[in-house]
Amino acid sequence: MKTTDDRRAQFEAECRSASLTLGARDDELLYDMWLDWLPERDRLRAAVPAPEDEPWR
Amino acid sequence: MAVNVADLDLRGVSEGLGKRELSSVEATEAYLRRIATHDPVLRAYITVTGDAALAQAKDADAEIARGKRRGPLHGVPIALKDLIAVAGVKMTSGSQVLADHVPARDAFITRKLKDAGAVLLGKLAMHEWAFGRPVTDGPFPTGRNPWDVRRAPAGSSSGSAVAAAAGLCAGALGSDTGGSIRGPAAMTGLVGHKPTYGLVSRSGVLALSWSLDHVGPMTRGVWDSAVLLQAIAGIDPDDTSTRTATTQDYVQHLEDGARGLRLGLLKRYYVDFPGLNDDVRSAALTAFDVLRKEGSTIEDVDAPSLDLALAVWAPLMSEAYEYHADTMRKTPEKFREGLRTRLLFSALFTAQDVQRAQRLRARIGREVDALLSRVDALIFPGQAGPALTFEDFPTTGFAPASIRYTAPWNLLGLPAVVVPCGFSREGLPVSIQIVGRRFDDATVLRASAAFERARPWAQHRPVLE
Q: Is residue B465, in this structure, part of any structural domain at all?
């Protein structure tokens, strides 16, 4: 079970990884959006593609 | 002129011109008067090109008087979302970044519309870069819903919806990356058609997300959308996505009715679906009964991976981040808060997320193609609920309840049309959405026309103050 502090640290690490430097307001809004989205992202990462699932083109 | 153009759909204007009951100049002047009267409140237009429109209308009248009517759009006044280039006319994309941008060349589809003789009234409001939020302030307000001006028409093709619904043009073009034609059309009681990906050129149209962007009609009737699509569809050497475009006659089969059509029902999208409004559910299920009575057969179908569509769609919006990242880094003050948050969010997906999304996109596509080998079209609610007030619109996020109904068809590039199917208890329009096979937009339009004929909800008009 991740704590709020864990989540916040994860968010900050991801922002650093994406080379984002945020002002306070952007940080607040982006963190809210990122938190809201986590369940969808977890579903994406949990869905394992089959070998025949080649990238869409 | 005994005709009130505000009451007409595009077909009514076109037929009035054909019968010489109405001239193009009369129609154009009537729309310009309505724009002058109502647009200070509705804010559908960013730029009105009145003088140019009247000159085009005069030319159309002269040509028609010589017995040379080019087709059903000749002399018909329409308007374009402000991300479609018209040579010499400001194109802002609703953004301060492009506040003074004037393209030198027409978009491919603008040329096609001019060739068809359409009169261009101006450029329509939109959410900032087709990805921002609805706003009422600043240099580019996004427009108010004519059914209730306290409410947003949704977006991003907000001005296109407002102008067509309020009778400030005979029809409009919008663009759609996750629902930006269909959402606003549903919220304003219009027909909105996101064509098959690759059927309509995007060259000269500002991008949001290249592999998800579509351009299409927003009109009061199905015939209107069919005629507009006919004019703009086809191969454009400057847009490689159109290289396999297969056009059809989109008007020919509109009167064929629903008899013999096989329609697919995905029950999960009606029962216990997150955020689905009861009035929308009930109106959409009634629409199924209507189509059954009109002679179509209904089959229960499913595609389990569709549940992943939203999770797959969002990482692909990293295309939008790539498009804007450099400009946003240099001039962040020119991006409003709502757009900036969405773009920054799109930067947080990893390369693996994006590639996984592309692989799962292929899986969803295979499942849906299999369904569409058994049925001619699938029917869904057009949106999760009716129009929201500006205050109720979420500050961040993607309005996931509604986008779950629309974004899957951007992912797969399939044709999807929303058609009005009733009103909520507050008197706001609600819609169904009909989805078909790739490059078979004609069948989707046929099913839409069959429903429209049985239940002509689109004939209701908002009452303007």
A: no
